[in-house]
Amino acid sequence: MVLSNVVRVVGQLNSVGTRSGLLGIRQLRRKYTYRSGALKPMPNVIPFGLFGVVLTVIPGLLIGATISKNMANFLEENDLFVPSDDDDDDD
Q: Taking phi first (over 0 means left), then psi (-120 to 50 degrees means alpha), and beta for anything else, what does residue 83 get?
């Protein structure tokens, strides 16, 4: 959310460095009230939050690591990519 605000502000800066909206008219977006002054409803709360992110990221990392390990073994078995032993000798 912070990044989108920064991108929006940077996108609204003209060459002089002043904020201007579409066609030079400054537009103000109200975050918690409508133009009439009425309060907007509470946003939806995501039930799992950080726990859901962890449950998504960890399996993705494990699946990606397994795929890359299998591809590396496949390439080495078929002599498509074999690390050279010359680079290890510094004598």
A: beta
pLDDT tens-digit profile of 21-42?
A: 455 555 566 688 888 888 999 8
Q: Is the dihedral of CA 48, 49, 54, 56 positive or negative?
A: positive
Task: Give the Cα separation of 83 and 76 in Å (integer).
Answer: 8
Following DSSP, what letter does each residue of the chain receive, concatenated? -HHHHHHHHHHHB-TTS-B--GGG------SSB-TTSPBPPPPPPPSSHHHHHHHHHHHHHHHHHHHHHHHHHHHHHTTSS---SGGG---
The list of the chain residues with pLDDT below 70 reads 1-30, 85-91
